[in-house]
Amino acid sequence: VQRVGDEAGRGRDALKPRSKSKPKASRPKGGRPPSGLAIEASENLPESYATTRLVLLPIDPYTLHAFWDLTRDDQGRRRKPLGEGSLPSRAVLRVYDVTGVMFDGSNAHGSFDVDIDIAAGRWYIPLSSPEKSYLAELGYRTEDGQFLPLVRSETVHAPRARPASGTDEQYLMVTAGEDLPFKVTEHASLPEDRISRTKRESSAIRNPDLEGDRENPPPIETKRATTAEDPLETLRKKLAGLYGLGTEGPSYPSPVRSENLRIEDQENSDLTALSERGFSLGISSR
Amino acid sequence: MKQGYLAIILHAHLPYLGHAEYDDSLEENWLYEAISEAYMPILFVLEGLAEEGIDFRLTLSITPTLASMLSDPLLQSRYLDRLDLLIDLGKKEILRTRSHPEFQALARRYHRRFVKLRDAYLNRYDRNLLQAFKQLEESGRIEIMASAATHGYLPLLCANESAVRAQIDVGIEYHRRTFGRRPEGFWLPECGYYPGVDELLKEKGIRYVVLETHGITRSESRPRYGVYAPVYCPSGVAAFARDADCSRQVWSSVEGYPGDYDYREFYRDIAYDLDLDYIGPYVHRGGIRLDTGFKYFRITGKEGHKEVYVPEWAERKAEIHAEHFILERRRQIKQLDSLMDRNPIVVAPYDAELFGHWWFEGPKWLNYLMRKVHKKQEMVRLVTLSEYLEQYSVNQASTPSVSSWGRNGFHETWLNVRNDWVYRHLHEAASSMEKLAGRHPRAKGLMLDALKQAARELLLAQASDWTFMMDKGDMTEYATKRIRTHLLRLGRLKEQIESRSIDPAWLSTVENQDRIFPHIDYRCFRVEGH
Question: Which of B203, B336, B341 has the CB atom closest to A181's CB atom?
Answer without folding.
Answer: B203
